[in-house]
User: Fold this.
Amino acid sequence: MKVGIMKGRVKSIFVDGKKVYGKFRPGLFIYDYKKEKIVWVDKEPLLEDPLSTGITFASDFIYLGDGEGILYAHVNDRFVRAYKLKADLLIKRLPKN
Assistant:
């Protein structure tokens, strides 16, 4: 089993004919690579970034040591956002079984 971070976003809407993207809200999931299927998805977002106004996707995770890492997210290929994540807080979100 592997823990992953998936793209997430509140539903986009149209305002005056222009598409307005919802908040960036990636989430956690558990993937059973032997069965090739997702077996659990967190009901709550991992984080929420209301300032992300384009198509955003989590692209890379770099482990920093001491139980911390940086999640990088690309926004419309124009720039990169970075979010610091702490392993102990992620572990608390995972199912107990």
